[in-house]
Amino acid sequence: MKKFIIVTLVSLTLSGCYSFGNQTLKNVTQEDVKAKIVKGKTTKSEVLTAFGEPDKRITSDDEEKWSYSMHNYRSKPTSYIPIVGILTGGTDIEEKSILITFKGEKVSSYEFTSGASEMKSGVF
Asked: Measured between alpha carbons, how far is 24 from 52 in angstroms, rounded to an integer?
């Protein structure tokens, strides 16, 4: 019986999470980005070292943009409690992104965004 309870709890915990995108950003803060990216100085290779390959590259006439994003979804533990889950269940959402613009080989600008939200699936 103990094994069944442990397996059930582990399964519920693991099934309640979903992540996609560049997980390098998971623990990155605005201060980290400021320390790693300096406008007019940081190069493409330094950005690759810091954040890995971008999710998307957009090239125009005189500039190139690299986009990084991370999305994590975690079900609230109350979602798995019978009756309580129907009333108060939901998902916590964490999102982060960096958009870096290069002119030549150097960063000309960047934007870091970070946010958390909640998606409710319960009545309340």
From this structure: 8
Dihedral of CA 106/53/34/97: which sign? positive
> Secondary structure of 67-110 in the HEC alphabet?
EEEEEEEEECHHHHCCCHHHHHCEEEEEEEEEEEEEECCEEEEE
DSSP 25: G
User: Which sequence spans correspond to the domains of the chain?
Assistant: 2-120
Query: Terminal CA-to-CA distance of the chain, rounded, Å?
Result: 34
- Measured CA to CA, the distance from residue 37 to residue 61 in angstroms comes to 23
Of residues 100 and 74, more confidence is placed in 100
pLDDT in tens, 14-48: 456 778 788 889 999 999 999 999 999 999 999 99
Percent of the residues in the chain that have a pLDDT greater than 70, as a whole number: 85
